[in-house]
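>> Question from a student workshop board

For tomorrow's exercise we were told to take the sequence and the ligand below, predict the bound structure, and bring the output to class. My setup keeps failing. Could a helper post the expected result so I can at least see what it should look like? The ligand is pyridoxal-5'-phosphate.
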Amino acid sequence: MKHIPFMKPNLVKSETYMELLKEIDHSRIYSNYGKLNTRFEQEIVTHLYKGEGFASTVNNATIGLMLAIMIAKRPQGKYALMPSFTFAATAQAALWCGLEPYFIDVRAEDWCMDEKIVAKHIEKLGDEVAVVIPYATFGTVADFSYYQHLLDNGMPVVIDAAASFGSTHMGKGVEQSFSGPIVYSFHATKSFGIGEGGLVYCKNEHFIQQLRQAGNFGFSEARESTQMGLNSKLSEYAAAVGLATLKVFKEKCLVRQSIKETYISKMEKLGLFNQGWDYHRTTGEVAHQNVSILCPKGHLAVEIVSMLGEYGVEARTYFSPACHQQSFFAKYPTSDLSVTEEIASRVINLPLWEELVDEEIEYVMEALAAINSVLLGESMHEA
Ligand SMILES: *Cc1c(COP(=O)(O)O)cnc(C)c1O
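>> Workshop helper replied:
Here is what the output should look like for this input. Compare the format with yours to find the bug.
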């Protein structure tokens, strides 16, 4: 039997950044927004954002979210509106900022937070809303112009685009419809993996300046703490890995897109979409972190994941449990979450890593088709 792991992160090899490590040895600058970090940020703004806007690295996206939320939030507000269908880091970051997560349902179409429900809650909660934190689900470049409209009307918004770095739609990323802070993760398991790291991008220079100050103990230029702060700095070693990753990232994105397309076209050929299976619709050329599908209604993703395990295929169920289903977050307020609960019960993430070959994808699909026959058999018995 084959063994197909869920992921096999493959970061750039040391020989591709050896020269940069030697630069560190020579400069003896190891952190504090050093030369390599500066080069890394500049290359990102120049090449990924065509010279527009401002960016600061952070040591991970959770810290990036904490800083961005802290700076953006209304001081008197209480709630951070966010989807429940996201990673726990978003809710944790809001709590660290003294806010309560308020979980909002997602749309069935693209699994992003439902703007109509957000609007209703802003109307209902008024000044109690401190910040709105949409999530660009699984790397999508959704249209965030509703959130731009909120921002323009004085409502703080921070976008969690942890898995969207490198995703584009008509040549631009999430920033094409949103000018506020956008937070990306460079964790090893993300498409742009450097180990630990992240980036906050914003078209407002002052916001990025404040964020860097907050991420450096709240120090002013005179090294006096003038605001709340912590340490969010990326080390020069991580920046070296980042610079080397930028050189090969385009290729990585293409490989990831092609793996996703192969999966979906095989599912189509097998006729699974006519039998209740579905998949996550994304917008743009997405640097896929995973391939997310839905099993037929009435079946449980966790059971199918364990059946896949019997074929040696390691799959996952992100984000199940959804945030509001996790014990620590269960006490916080929510909208009706029926779409979230439905997706969470049916979502399966299939293996995705860059050396995954067609033959292995074929094997995963054969396993899924075999499981589907078993499911069909079961439903026939029931009928
Ligand atoms: C990965 C991820 C994070 C956290 O990123 P780190 O860099 O590991 O802190 C936050 N939100 C979402 C949606 C993520 O997928």
